Request: fold
Amino acid sequence: MRHLVLRLPVWIRAQPLDCMFALLGILPGVASLAGLATSRALETLLPWWAAQLWALILIVGCGCWLAGASSVRERDGHLVASRLPLFLLGLRLLSLACLVYAVAIVVISGWAGLLAAYPLLVGAAGLYIRRVGLTR
Reply:
C-alpha cells in the first residue's frame, strides 16, 4: 500500500485533506444543480434561483480549490502553489457555501438543527483559516 501512496502526485501527498474535501463537494453540487437531490433547508429559506446559485458556487469552489491545489509543487524544500489566486477563490467560495447552508439549517430547524449545522460551521471556519494561512 505504501508503494501506491508514494506514486501519488506531490500535491495530493502534501495536502490529502484538501483534495478529499474538495472532491466531496462536487457530487452534491452537481446533484443539486441537476435536480437529483434537494435540501429542505435551502429550498425553504431561499428562492429557487438562490439554491441553484448555491449549488453552482459549491461546484465552482471545489473546482477552483482542486485546480489551485494541483498547482502545488516542491521548490527548494517549500511547497509553492503557482495558481494561488484560484486556490484562494475556491476556499472563499466553499467557506461561503458552508456558512449559507449552516445558517439555513439553523434558521429552519432552530436550535435542534445546531448539531447538523456544526460540521458546516467548523468547515467554514477551517476553510477561512486555510485561506488566511495561504496568504501569509
